[in-house]
Write a structure and sequence with these properties.
Blueprint: E1 8-14, E2 17-23, H1 29-36, E3 55-58, E4 61-64, E5 77-79, H2 92-99, H3 109-122, H4 128-135, H5 146-161
Parallel strand pairs: 1-5
Antiparallel strand pairs: 1-2, 3-4, 3-5
Length: 162
């Protein structure tokens, strides 16, 4: 007879909202975000931290949510792609992705957006080489990377005009 799985009570701040949840201690942060909070913008690809599709911010820094347990996020600020999207419209980076055709199937897009935005927040003058290096941990099987790099450069330049 199967035994009931133990649960752990945690409190998570995700996209500025505090959630009290009972989670399995073995669930990844990606699982908690997707299956308990319904934040399906966090994609699960390789489940080994290689593809970058599950990238979220933990206290403002990009992390692979498939590589950490949900219980480890307690006491930290988690931001998903839903959290960087304005309530109306798109962010400048999201607009640049749209304008520069920087997505096709969209599977890698949330991880690319979070990685690129973290770079631009840290270094608003990032050069192409820095952008390529930052994005090198995110895999895209559709577009190649030139359109994605072009979009990040355009968002960077739009930020300079602001």
């Amino acid at each position: 007879m199967p035994t009931e799985e133990a649960r752990t009570a945690i409190e998570l701040n995700v996209n500025g909202i505090t959630h009290r949840l009972d989670v399995s201690p073995r669930w990844s942060l990606a699982d908690v975000l997707r299956h308990q909070l319904g934040l399906t913008g966090t994609h699960v690809g390789c489940e080994q931290g290689v593809c970058g599709a599950c990238t979220v911010w933990l206290d403002g820094l990009p992390v692979r949510s498939c590589l950490m347990f949900g219980v480890q996020a307690q006491g930290h600020q988690v931001t998903t792609v839903e959290g960087i999207t304005p309530s109306t419209g798109l962010s400048p980076l999201q607009t640049a992705f749209q304008e520069h055709h920087a997505l096709q199937c969209g599977f890698c897009t949330p991880g690319m957006l979070l990685t690129a935005q973290a770079l631009l927040d840290r270094n608003p003058k990032a050069e192409e080489g820095e952008i390529r290096a930052a994005l090198s941990g995110n895999l895209c099987r559709c577009t190649g990377y030139q359109f994605i790099v072009d979009a990040v450069l355009a968002a960077r330049d739009a930020g300079r005009d602001a």
